[in-house]
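If your schedule permits, I should be very grateful for your opinion on a structural question. What I wish to show you is a protein chain and, alongside it, a tokenised description of its three-dimensional fold. Would you kindly read the sequence against the tokens and tell me how you understand this chain to fold? Here, with my thanks, is the record as I have it:

===
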Amino acid sequence: MSRQPLAARARPRRRRTGPPVGRRGSLLLTALALGAVVAGLWEGGYGLGTPLAHAHEPASIAPYEGSAIEAPTEPDARLQINEAEVAERLDQLAASRAAREEAARPKAVLPVNGRLTSSYGARWGTTHYGLDFAAPMLTPEYAAADGVVLRAGSASGFGLAVYILHDNGDVTVYGHMEKILVKKGQYVDAGETIALLGNRGQSTGPHLHFEVFEGGLDGSRVDPRAWLAERGVYI
């Protein structure tokens, strides 16, 4: 049996080598290009795991490239309001509120929450010129309508009395109170408390005597029940 030469049996081991020089350049260029794409996606606000939109689908959110709205360096003139305008608007609000309150408040009221015990007309052989309302001592008495206090103090027969002049010239009279809470020249609203009911003067018990002079104190005394009814107050 013949033997091969030693040199023939020991084959040299092939060394692994990289790609040819030409392919190295091509791969390097491809890697650089892919790196640039990935870097662009990352800097554009997309994570590597975020799928790209299809070419025919518009992106719903544009890539963030800084603040889209810059804070104004100067105050917007359209948003400014000066002190005069503020004062004017506050006055308008106050006037509107006052008008609503004025429209809502009563223009006439019953002068006291009590029980009618005597009406206008003949009584005990004379004429009773008013209405008597019985109520407990110190019950509040009210101005029957808006007006100005003509008199407030001592009065013959009444002990104490209040006279109120109204805008149409009529005068209402309130008598026998225990305490007067208004003074001459004071403006009063309908329903404003003017006195506390009492039993002073020619009186047989705590009550309010209420009269109406038509056209002033020198005018004729009329039935207060009808006068109140004309103003929507019924007894």
About this structure: The radius of gyration is 51 Å.
